[in-house]
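Schema walk-through. Below, the input block comes first and the output block second. Nothing else is stored per chain. Lengths vary across the set, and this one has 295 residues.
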Amino acid sequence: RSSYSCCYFVLPCCFFDFHGKYIRRQSKKTQYREYLDFVAQVGFVCGFHVEEDCLRIPSTKRVSFIGKSRTYPAAEHALIDKQITQFINSRTCAVATCDRRVGFNHKNHCGGLCKEADSEPPEDETETAGTSWMPGFQPRGKVEQIRNCASLPRDFVDEVVLNVANLLLNAGPQKSCSDKQAGNMNTWNQGESLSLREVAEHLNKETLKRLKSEYGGLQTLLKNNHQVFEVLNGRVHIRDWRKEKPPSKTKPEVKRRLSAEAFKTRLCWFFIHHPDGCSLPSEACPYAHGTEELR
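--- output ---
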């Protein structure tokens, strides 16, 4: 409905209608097939030649639809838009009728638009979509804010990582992991493990306030820095790279190539900040032990 030149690709997954959960109408088809037919119907009603394809992905829901061309000339766009309005209103009214069983008011749910199915489409559809296209519909903003801690300043992230690492190293009696190689006994302090709540209690208010504006907050930031930390069952550990599983020989070629390309392209955090240095020798560590090793 955005424009006559619009094309689309959709991979149906969760069973949702325009205004809530999709309500089944047939028992002879599987729920998935019935929902696929509904999604295809939406494309047909909107005036598209709808093509169906099956993606080669490891998922049980891999049927997709593509709309690349219209079934009507551009001159009939206003007429088709009226048809779309009627279809949307019929779907939202059907949901409201069902919802009345649990106390929803049809008039409030529909917003009175059911009587306006034959009205002319708005001149500026993008401005009035939320009120005219469908009751209660709120389109996504044109700019979506990144809130997965990836846009936080690097110096802020580095400071939090260093503070949390020092907290784990000094949380209790130092624990040492023994590593027997070539007959020598080397010790490396892995520190304690603390719950996310305990870690948060040791951070200042300004840092916590900044993290709360991000999805996942502190946990997401620590998981993003997987070179240093391991977060398991709500507890934070300093990662010991000696315990990491060696790369599988059956690893896909693409992943093997990406791993090889990333080798020694970043500095080793442990080599720089850990009191015992890195737990791995330089030739075995995927990160650079000093700027001279950087690729």
